[in-house]
Amino acid sequence: MAAKFVSKRNLQFLLYEVFDVLSLTRYPYYQQHNKKSFDLILDACLKMAKKLLFPILEEMDRKPPELENGRVKVHPAVRTIMEQFGEGGWIAAKFEERFDGEQLPYMIGDCCQFVFAAANYSGVTFPGLTAKAARLITSFGNQAQIDTYVPPMLGGQWQGTMALTEPQAGSSLADITTTAVPLEGDTYQIRGQKIFISAGDHDGVDNVVHLMLAKIEGAPAGVRGISLFIVPQKRPDGQGGLVPNDIIVSQIYHKMGYKGSPITELSIGEKNDCRGYLVGEPHKGLAYMFQMMNSARLGVGAGAAAIATAAYYAALEYAQARPQGRPLTERDPAAPQVPIIAHADVRRMLLFQRSFVEGAHALLMQCCRYADEEIVLEGDAGERAALLLDLLTPVAKSYPSETSIPSTSLAIQCLGGYGYCDDFPVEQYFRDTRIHPIHEGTTGVQGMDLLGRKVRMQNGKAFDLFVEEVQGAIVEGEAIETVAPFAGTLKGILEELVEVTDTLKTRAVEEGIAVYLSDATLYLEYFSLVAVAWQWLRQITAAARGLQGKPSKSDLNFYNGKFFSGRYFFHYELPKTKGLVARLLDTDTVTLDMDPAFFQD
Ligand SMILES: Cc1cc2nc3c(=O)[nH]c(=O)nc-3n(C[C@H](O)[C@H](O)[C@H](O)COP(=O)(O)OP(=O)(O)OC[C@H]3O[C@@H](n4cnc5c(N)ncnc54)[C@H](O)[C@@H]3O)c2cc1C
Q1: Is the separation of the CB atoms in 113 and 124 below 8 Å?
Q2: 439: CA distance to ligand 1 center in Å?
């Protein structure tokens, strides 16, 4: 087992030197925090990740959950995880003080989530989902619902889920058929089937609270008829107890990766005795659920980057220790072998991984910064942050998800044959991360969201704000001699992004939406490379400032490492925009024209 799965120094760099998390403590909402408390929280999180989560990473993979007598049996440590995350305040960390939360900034809270996910992604899905589900109830539920469900969820005794998907309704949630028949007040009788529901049942908690989408009888067709319900596995009996709520786990699926976390198929209300409680107003369910989905999308992006981070450190450790071959310039066959990290191609593989994981993590931190600004800033400034977060969410979900696959694959490659065997954790990381482009909206869905909606919303306002943000970083970079060449490169690339986006928008008007969106996934990839180059420019600028001070020897290495990783991104990854631009401006429409019949034989 590798010794390291995350870099504390990099977390501190992002928090304090790039994103200036301390500046948030000027605002009343975050004023109870300071550097000392942030450092203590980070230390506690690293300790918990190392002691509780990391040691059972492999075991949770090898002993996946089983369905036994209608109950999902998970690894016994899941109960401990939920208890410790509840008692330690980790589930409630970002919640307001009135909910017994710590009111932690997103930047700190999500950094901790990143550490937990790097240590053991399966393990952290249980409390992570619960926090997001509880947040949905505090945002849109009534006081009685908050009082009944939120304390045991934040305390780690009850699991929260998001129950959306049905056999015929995955990407297209408009087609759900789970029904809700009004009984009295906010109580409805629920009936239907849900599939793939993460943590839909398990013996690590005393109850499971589904945040479920269903259609009230007679509701309008499509997404306008979807409502949100709290559907507990055991419902309150009105006398302080709980009774079964007619939800059956009909199967658990056998997954390729993150096997410690079960996904379930649920049969709901087969005996006509399942009660659900309407959250907020009828027919607004999907709009409410988007809060949880957007937060989960960022969580998925962070999970992908975190898993790839752990894989990178495992590959690095191996590359430093594994002797193999000699330098190309060494002619003496009796000369000792060198560690494989001495070979340029191995360094290329390590640099790909590092430039990806640190670039992606910075992009996620940028999103957290906007989430924090949305809370503390008022008026136009708050709206600006909200728009930027909205624009970047599909990017921050998809780029890490997609790129974590080649990244963890290269971690395997660094280990050669051992990488392909389960003696080392990298094959598990590769399997664990493969889910991310699929759940919480596939990459295809995210591409259409970015190009079809986000880039055009409010007459392109969010996109213009993004361009302004990148231009700001370019101006800062241009002022530092060693950074100026990177800033100059990004300036040209950004101008090209504006031109390409305008051209595509014109095509949407001239040739219609089907042509416009046919390559939305490629546009997403293109936009992502620009966004991550922006984050590398910000990191290189901060590293240059660090080098201007009097860095210690280890900081000198760290800042130089940043420079070289950023340099790799600008010289190896960013040029990929050229091919994407060529395709996006190419007017050939083969993917639209090819008849499905032509795929036969
Ligand atoms: C491990 C795991 C955990 C999950 N956890 C949960 C959970 O907790 N709660 C929950 O509700 N669901 C969950 N899901 C379900 C998940 O969100 C869906 O699998 C996902 O939304 C995709 O839906 P689908 O599987 O039906 O695929 P489909 O929607 O059938 O998509 C298949 C392919 O077709 C493409 N496609 C579909 N429609 C279009 C279109 N209109 N235009 C272009 N391309 C299209 C997709 O991009 C994809 O590549 C989970 C799934 C897995 C595997």
Answers
A1: yes
A2: 6
